[in-house]
Amino acid sequence: MPALQAILLSSNADTKEYVGDLLVLLLAAATVSILARRIRLPSIPGYLLVGALVGPSLLGLISSDKNTGQISELAIVLLMFTIGLHLDTSSIRSGMVSILTVGATSTIGVALALWPVGMAFGLTAPAALAVGLALSMSSTAVVLGILQQRREIHRVHGRLSVGISLMQDLISIAALIALPVLAQWHLHVEADAANALSSSITQAAASSPDAPSSLLDRLRDVAIAVCGIAALIGFGRWVMPRLLREASRDSNTEALLVVSATAALTAAVITESLGVGTVLGAFLAGFLLSSTPFRHQLAGQLSPMRDLFMAVFFTAVGIQVDVGSAFENWWVIAIGVVALLSIKASIIGFVTWAGGGTAPIAALTGCLLAQAGEFSLVILGTAADQHGLLNERTMSVLIAIVVLSLVLTTPLSELSRRMQARLSRVPPARWITSPALHEPLPSSVQAPNTGGSDPFHDDPLPYPHRPVIIAGFGVVGRNLAEHFAAAGIPYIVIELNPSTVIRQQKLGRRFIFGDITNPDVLESAGVHSAEAVILTIPDDDAVLRACGIIRQLNPSIFIAARTSFLSRAIAATELGADYVTVEEVVTAQDMAKQVMERLAKRLVDSLDAAT
Length: 611
Fold this sequence. Notes:
This protein is mainly α. Mean pLDDT is 81; it is low at 196-213 and 440-464. Helix 3 (43-54) runs parallel beside helix 14 (295-319) and helix 8 packs across helix 9 (197-207). It contains 27 helices and 6 strands.
């Protein structure tokens, strides 16, 4: 990875400058995070704006573009790994074909619609197509942040947004692979414009030693990249789960985290060597791990780091904005932002409606995905730095357009929510009826629930009762599970033994690998909609931590716990447990009962023998 190599090989002075820039960046991000929480505003637009403020074009607190690029590259690699890890395909399993079809159609439609817009602003046809492909991508981080904050991921528009975003990420692979071919086309176009085809191609090839000398070489590189990515996917699909299972032996979550992080960086290095960038490899590694039983535990362990990477990346993106150039080209940027948001929202919304969705769902989905995203910056940066498709001025304008589209995402989605009642009068498309997209949307447009169980977290459960979560599947957990099954009460088990989880999942039972003290694991188990959590694990410290976390996540849920000593039972009750079984008390009572019965029987036998 170029960023990592640059840091390791840099001099002491360069390292001090790098650390200083990173410190300024983190201080700026921390300030935004605190202020955003205080005034209840999304933090990502704040990161972008404060990045522009401390960057070289305004305050100049960070003046090194080189350091900013290195920081940004490291942050986005790790950020995209965590984003890929959080993309759960099970959330779109209902109606997957319809959702992915909408995603593919709308993404290609947006790219084709933006293509002539780019040409109208003076870009060559291949450069405009590259820009169209880049801007057709939406921000997975921003969309997931909004949906998770409102607990709408499992609503219809949430599943649609995640599915379309997933399809966009897959299309971005093709876009990155196609850039060398677009670069070769770009050379021909420029040569034709200068009426010197042969000489221009020769000069361009000589000025870029890394560029292939012919279209056949480009196609060969594309084929190698495709084969390499296919091999990477195969390794992640069939080999990585076995490595993770080995790493998780003896409930060793530390080794599991280390192996996963190693896999992410390895995949990033491989895709970089294939010429499609580090970000793609990190995202693929996370996405492939999201289909394993270990995803919930890993997602929970990496969630705090994901927030850090997000803060660093978006602040670094803001630093790249040239405010002076933005003011000089303000009218181009303004037209570009309006064109991007209107074209993407309209096309995504129309394709969703035409695919069978209701008008309110279509409009909300289109507005949520109208912005550009992380892969937009990756594709644009690759097109400019490695293939010469875009010059510095064009990149400055495009980065400003991306930043403003991200800033306007939340207001645009809120505007769409206010229009839900009016849009509900629009009839659905008559030529397609898709149950996955045709669900009405009355409740998901309201404010998120701040107390009690959260009706927006999961779809209504197909059970006569809300489920019970059992933490641990030892002797106590198994006994409880048998009683619940006999009573017809649904249950979900959280267990740290991977063999048990995999074996029980094959039997069709709802088992999740993870630590009960991990909030992401609890949310994956449905703690917001569960009836109770039963803590059967023989670990008092973990039980105490779990009681506090569960009560914070769901203030109304029933919590039953198991502790070894009476003092721990009192602490568990103070932390939120409703009922606590104390092993020493139960043992004392049971032992007293058993001893008294045995002594009484012995006395009776002695009296009988005497008579």
